[in-house]
Amino acid sequence: MKSRKYHSFLLKFFFLALSCILLSSGSAAAQTLYGAADPDNNDVSDLYSIDPANGDAMLIGPIGFRGVTGLAFLPDGRLIGSARSPNTTSGGIIIFHAILIEIDPTTGAGNLIGEIDTSEDGCGRIPDISFDRTKNTLFGVGSTNGCASRSHLYTIDPQAGGGGIPLANATGFDGTGNGLAVHPQTGIVYHTPSD
């Protein structure tokens, strides 16, 4: 019997691949899908290419950052991802740090763009990101305290990583959420809750 953690990992990997499919265009034979995985949830994440015809994943290389869960392509062709930097503490309280990174799709190597936010004053984890070409806006989904409250939709500065600004009210789902995708023609945002 597979563990709940394994099923959660597969579900997150599926929604990541689904968001890549929703954002891509052209025939399946001409596409390359990408996914990030961190099977132990504490180690450096790896970048994979995914064959859209059969779902096979091929390791590209280590990204160099932990907790890479969201991937998106910007209009200029750069692959970016949401990740976690090492936690810090303040007054005995653990502070989570959500960061934005750029990833080389040929080697998997990641470079820090900037910190999105922290759980100290906002969102300490952004499980998924998606770029809305109709509004030229990078969205992220996460909770206001990093793990336990209702999830919110955020706008993120794709050049600096900052600006984890929540939009309006909570999405209505508990937790940080998992998948996020924006329809490329309509700009409708799709979101899946935490499991």
Q: What is the mean pLDDT? A: 76
Strand content: 35-45%
The amount of helix comes to: 10-25%
Tally of contiguous helical segments: 1
In spatial order, strands of the major sheet run: 1-2-3-4-5-6
Main sheet? 6 strands, antiparallel
What is the overall silhouette? Answer: globular
The string of secondary-structure elements, in order, is HEEEEEEEEEEEE
Secondary structure category = mainly beta
Spatial gap, N to C terminus: 18 Å
Care to count the β-strands? 12
> What count of domains describes the coordinates?
1
What would you note in describing this structure?
With 195 residues, the chain is mainly beta. 10% of the residues lie in helices and 45% in strands. The chain has one domain. A six-stranded antiparallel β-sheet has the order 1-2-3-4-5-6. Strands 7-8-9-10 form a four-stranded antiparallel β-sheet. It has a two-stranded antiparallel sheet with strand order 11-12. Strand 4 and strand 5 form a beta hairpin. It starts with a helix and ends with a strand.
Topology overview:
Blueprint: H1 4-23, E1 33-37, E2 44-50, E3 57-73, E4 79-90, E5 93-103, E6 110-118, E7 128-132, E8 137-143, E9 151-156, E10 165-166, E11 180-182, E12 189-191
Antiparallel strand pairs: 1-2, 2-3, 3-4, 4-5, 5-6, 7-8, 8-9, 9-10, 11-12
Précis, in short:
The chain is mainly beta and 195 residues long.
